[in-house]
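Dissemination and training. As part of the outreach component of the grant, students in the summer workshop were shown how a complex can be specified as a set of sequence lines and then modelled as a single object. The example used during the hands-on session is reproduced here so that future cohorts can follow it. Participants entered these lines:
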Amino acid sequence: MKETEPIKVMTEGHNMKSYAKACENFDWRDMEKAFSWYETGKVNAAYEAIDRHVDSGKGDKTALLYSDPKREERYSFREMKEQSDRFGNVLKKLGIQKGDRVFIFMPRTPELYFSFLGILKVGAIAGPLFEAFMEAAIRDRLEDSEAVALVTTPQLLSRVPHKELPALKHIILVGEGELDEGFYQLEEGFCSFRKEMAEASTELEMEWVDREDGMLIHYTSGSTGKPKGVFHVHNAMLQHYQTGKWVLDLKEDDIYWCTADPGWVTGTSYGIFAPWLNGVTNVIRGGRFSPEDWYGTLEKNGVTVWYSAPTAFRMLMGAGADVVKQFDLSKLRHLLSVGEPLNPEVVRWGLETYGKRIHDNWWMTETGGILISNYPAMEVKPGSMGKPFPGVKAAIIDDQGNELPPMRMGNLAIRTPWPSMMRKIWKNEAKYSEYFRIPGWYISGDSAYRDEDGYFWFQGRIDDVINTSGERVGPFEVESKLVEHPAIAEAGVIGKPDPVRGEIIKAFISLRKGHEPSDELKEQIRVFVKEGLAAHAAPREIEFKDKLPKTRSGKIMRRVLKAWELDLPTGDLSTMED
Ligand code: WTA
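and obtained this result:
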């Protein structure tokens, strides 16, 4: 990316007055004082996010401003406490204990948030699943985590192969049709959310846990193998809280909207914890993306701080400035973006259109919280991810672990540890240790460089992980699904650059004998992946090949596919079979 003129400081009054000052004498232990456990010694992130505000007299303040095309609801911190207490009691009645995995597979509605908080309150580990997942994706995750309970809707139930999941004992049905007799008469282990909640007490005996006890698992993709269960602990709240203050710049009166779904890490760290740990009103919008809907959400709720993603900003840019003019966005104070590279032209467009800078920041499912960012009180360099969060050391290192000087490209690495760092990959020690193969460092898998002023610039992934519309997709998962199709002999999947989505998924496919390439077959294959795995994992482009490039040990060489696609040199082919 080209370097361009930095955009200077535009407004005053930020929580972080000066980046340099914030870095001086920074100590995470100072942040602990914000939490009640600093004095009580009793830890639970859900308590700190919700109940603490009730106990300190802010119970009537609005915590959740929910809307979708059918519902519009508002819940105070007190109501959030009551609802999550109720749900905790529902779980207790089912015998759910500390450390049990309880998964949530449902669209964004208030019940999702009550459930999530209730799970934490009983000391169980929450596993939110993106609602677009299909059966194979759901099976992999529930099987690996050995989830004992699942909160889902009657509509999504057909994607849950519950009879094949021996660990799964309870299914809590929520939403339209949940009271239908059928579920409960036929099967043991089903219960109705509404019915159980109505009977449960609004006073829960909180499970106090240790800071290092499990809180959350997010499954994410690597370039090989099945999705990995990234395991986070209650201690992560330190980072959620402080990045909420300094990066999101959250203040008492803010109306905050994070557009991410809790099935992805941004939707929990910054869609649940950061705003509520800071006692801020959180906007949740259900339903689908459209420019009118999103601008309408900003206007109607008077959103002041808005956290979204490059693909969304690019789509809004595509929709044009005329749409923007129909809405009153004057309350907007602070804009942020994460998940994929944010093009400098989008930042400049944002400045022209909204009159505000979009602050790019960088982190990963594994890091649990923001590690590099552009801060409100700092010059923004369009195209750069910004500077390390105070107390965090980021560096560019080579494969031996040597730190590289400015302007040299290498592995983006972070000095271990930091409060929200993942504590394990669920049941996969080997995968976990790959991240820490160089002593003292977490290796992100991204390549980047640092400029003379200390700003970091993203260059790409080192592995084959695809980032499409900000969603991380593992090529192996898609390839595995593809070869289940009866016409497909072999498949190789790559990310192909795309102006709006960042990357799209492209599949190279060789067919079994007796099958001929055709557009109908392409469409059939797309639907096959869409219905088997997830819509966002389906290849937008398919190319048939007689043969795919493979190593002598039979591994598809995605690097060669990518070089073909981009018209680049294929590099060293010595390991390729003839
Ligand atoms: C990419 C999302 C460029 C990166 C929070 C990283 C980014 C992966 C940025 C993590 C950014 C994230 N600029 N690329 N500002 N932020 N990425 O786990 O490749 O879904 O490794 O976490 O997204 O994606 P994940």
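The pocket of WTA is lined by residues 220, 264-266, 338-341, 360-365, 385, 444-446, 458, 461, 467, 472 (CB under 6 Å). Students were then asked to discuss how this feature might be tested experimentally.
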